[in-house]
Amino acid sequence: MEPDAMARDKGKAGEAWEYAVQVTEERPGSLLLALKGRLSLEHSQALNQELQQVWTRGRVDQVLVNLKWVEYLDSAGALILLNLSNQARERGVVFKLAEVPPRVQEILDLMDPEALTRPTLRPAPQAPGLWAQMTQGVMNVARDLVELLIFVGDLVFALGRAALHPRRVRWEEVLVTMKRAGLDGVPILGLMSLLLGMVIAFMSALQLKQLGATIYVASLVGIAMVKELGPILTAILVAGRSGSAFAAEIGTMKVNEEVDALLVMGFDPMGFLAVPKVLAAAVVVPVLTVYATFAGILGGLFIGVTLLDLTAYTFVNEVRGVMKLFDISTSLIKAVVFGVVVAGIGCQRGFTVTGGAEGVGLKTTSAVVASLFLIIIIDAAFAIVLHYIR
After folding, report:
1. Which residues on neighbouring strands pair with residue 64, listed in sequence order?
2. Who's near 151: CB < 8 A, 6+ residues apart?
3. Structural domains in the chain?
4. CA-to-CA distance for 245 and 110, rounded, in angstroms?
5. DSSP alpha helices (H): ranges in 112-243?
6. What is the rounded distance in angstroms from the CA atom of residue 67 to the CA atom of residue 12?
7. Best CA proximity match to 22, nearest among 44, 43, 53
8. Closest CA to 226 of 311, 338, 343, 320
9. In the chain, which residues have pLDDT < 50?
10. What's the confidence (pLDDT) of residue 115?
């Protein structure tokens, strides 16, 4: 077989060939593969597909590969030949290389066939079973709880120190955080509360109208907004806007080693970063709760006046009748607790960030989820305790 004949066997029309493959059947079951040109990574996919067609030619007992006219061979080409040899061995076919040039033999000698088939020292990870996943989940929750308790201890200590030495508190940062967490969230909170009050009034009126008791729509809206929906809606909004921002801010500082720089300069990161945010949230959330409560009652008033034939005086007087100082005070206390929890969780998640930008994103999401979970748990605890102490 001449090289020119192989060159005509494989190539692009009008272009110089890169590699050539010619298969000759010397006798039944015995194949001769003549390779020529460049067996490189650039052509590895096409070359491998063409060599795989050898096993579609029916019964094969012996494969002889002639490498006399191979001009260039890299590790990818050598791996293709080694893979073809392994396939022949699995099929019980005799595989041989013939007329191997010295430069090609040097590349082939670098390949270790046993190393390719030898199992790795570190086994491939396997998907954990159900019991392993449950155990890991319990361990993660326990570890998270321990970290949270440690953070709570450090935060309480930092707040106590701030109470003893108020001049050390970064009050400028407190005011800035109050603006970001409070004033900037007023428009969206007002709109949400207004629409929520309208929805509660409208849906309750559909049922109470059948009993001729539409006057109690005002009582229902007032009680719902003061005791439950006002604090919860405000806490959820602050958790989504400010809690996530706290986690992202501190997490980014942790990734950029700015928290470590504070330690080197002699600052306490807890007092420097977390205390201003917690104090700002403790002040802002109750104020926003009062605002959200009034907005929700105003939405109910709008539905009562426009759709239920109630006068504004009647609606407001009915709301005042069901309002009690105990309900208002406990609502504000609940709002303070929500504010401290949301800010604390955001800061705690920020301090535990590891890795890069992905870690910041994961902890930011975790801060929001954990805050919402604790808000519901704390609200349920308040409901049970207030039920028995009234």
Report:
1. 32, 96
2. 344, 347, 348, 351
3. 3-117 (3.30.750.24), 153-389 (no CATH)
4. 55
5. 113-117, 130-164, 171-181, 186-208, 216-224, 230-238
6. 22
7. 53
8. 320
9. 1-17
10. 66
